[in-house]
Amino acid sequence: MEPGILGSIFFGANVLAGLSALTAAWVASKIGLIRTMVFTHIPSNILLILVPLMPTLPLAITVLLLRFSISQMDVPTRQSYTMAVVSPDERSAAAGITGIARTTGSSLSPVIAGPLMGSAALLSVPFFLSGGIKIIYDLMLYRNFKTIKPPEEKK
Questions:
Q1: What whole-number distance in Å separates Cα of residue 64 and Cα of residue 71?
Q2: How confident is the model over 44-53, as pLDDT tens digits?
Q3: Is it the case that residue 132 has pLDDT exceeding 90?
Q4: CA torsion 126→127→133→134, rounded to 10°?
Q5: How many other CB atoms are there within 10 angstroms of residue 74's CB atom?
Q6: Of 96, 74, 89, which Cα lies nearest the Cα of 145?
Q7: pLDDT at residue 106 greater than cutoff 90
Q8: How far apart are the first and last CA of the chain?
Q9: Which alpha helices (H) appear in the chain, and where do they start and end?
Q10: Per-residue pLDDT averaged across 5-26, rounded?
């Protein structure tokens, strides 16, 4: 694939991710912050796992774009949830910790994915690992926090 086409695909994917983040508030108002984080992130990661299994490039691109259309709904809802359930004097520290955890994961993943993607036989493994680890994270998050409601969701 030509670099210009690849760039266009990722441009479109990131536009969809931005729209995904913008629609998160509306979805959260309907189903709640935790459910928005988990119930949009799990399908997003299932789609990520499916990308390398697609038999044609157009199908892989379509699945990738579908994934990006819901992939970022967890970001603003996680930030909102964290700020809502943490006491005001601890919000800065909580935001820092969640930011560091996200940045650390993003910086370490190329060290693992790079060598795997260097081998044709292991090219799909990063998709499976990433999607699988994120699904486990989502299930643990839901199990541990589903009963802790932010003030605006308590009725």
A1: 10
A2: 999 999 999 9
A3: yes
A4: 140
A5: 27
A6: 74
A7: no
A8: 53
A9: 3-31, 33-50, 57-68, 74-85, 91-117, 125-145
A10: 94
